[in-house]
Structure formats: C-alpha cells, structure tokens
Amino acid sequence: MFSLLYIDDEPGLLELGQLFLERTGEFTVTTTLSAEAGLACLAQRDFDAVISDYQMPGMDGISLLKNVRKSHGNIPFVLFTGRGREEVVIEAINNGVDFYLQKGGDPKAQFA
C-alpha cells in the first residue's frame, strides 16, 4: 500500500481526493490544509508521494515543492492548480515537479 500526503486549503477537495484514492485499496492518504502543516507531517514520517495544490494561503505549492526537494530529495510530487498558467508550469518543472495537473473535471481522470 502506498502512503500519500495530500495538501490543499479546500477541505471539500481534500475529502473527495482522499475518498477516491483510498477506495482503490492501493493508497492510504494523510491530508493537511496548509503547506506548513504538510512539511510538519513530512518531518514526522515518510510518505511515498506528495500531492499539493498550487495556490494556498501562506506558502504556495512551488515553495512547498522547493522545501520538499531540499529535505526529502526525489519523493514524487504532484502539483494541482485551478488555472493552467504557463509561468507556473515552467517554474514547477524547473523545480523538479513530477506531474502538473489542472484541477476540475472527473476525479477518476484527475487521480488516475
């Protein structure tokens, strides 16, 4: 079973993503509502991958990605955004994001 850390400031999306992923039987999902709380979770235990929103209050997803790369190396990192802005995609790729996805639509397609 894979252990995922899912970070988003929107509780409804966190719950939907957690339910969808855990229902497969392949994942356990820990959720946090902020990048800072996510970093605290990463300091406490190991995860197989991180899923994060881009736009959050305080630390955004790119800053979180940079912190994760410094402290946890090449752990797989998926970044979601509500808007597909080209400059965000470029910055995410330049900082080592593994996957970049736009929020919205069918959860099955989004989390597949």
What does this protein structure show overall?
- By secondary structure, the chain is of the alpha/beta class.
- The chain has one domain: Rossmann fold (3-Layer(aba) Sandwich), CATH 3.40.50.
- Helix content is 44%, strand content 23%.
- The chain has 5 helices and 5 strands, in the order βαβαβαβαβα.
- Helix 2 runs parallel beside helix 3 (61-72).
- It is globular and about 35 Å long.
What topology does this entry show?
Blueprint: E1 2-7, H1 11-23, E2 27-32, H2 35-44, E3 49-53, H3 61-72, E4 77-81, H4 86-94, E5 99-102, H5 107-111
Parallel strand pairs: 1-2, 1-3, 3-4, 4-5
Keywords:
5-stranded parallel sheet; about 45% helix; about 110 residues; 5 strands; Rossmann fold
Beta-strand level of the residues, as a percent range?
A: 15-25%
CATH A-level architecture? 3-Layer(aba) Sandwich
What fold name goes in the CATH topology slot?
Answer: Rossmann fold
Structural class: alpha/beta
According to DSSP, the number of beta strands is: 5
Q: Based on CA inertia axes, which overall geometry fits?
A: globular
Q: Spell the H/E element sequence.
A: EHEHEHEHEH
CATH hierarchy class name? Alpha Beta
Largest sheet: 5 strands, parallel
Structurally, how many domains make up the residues?
1
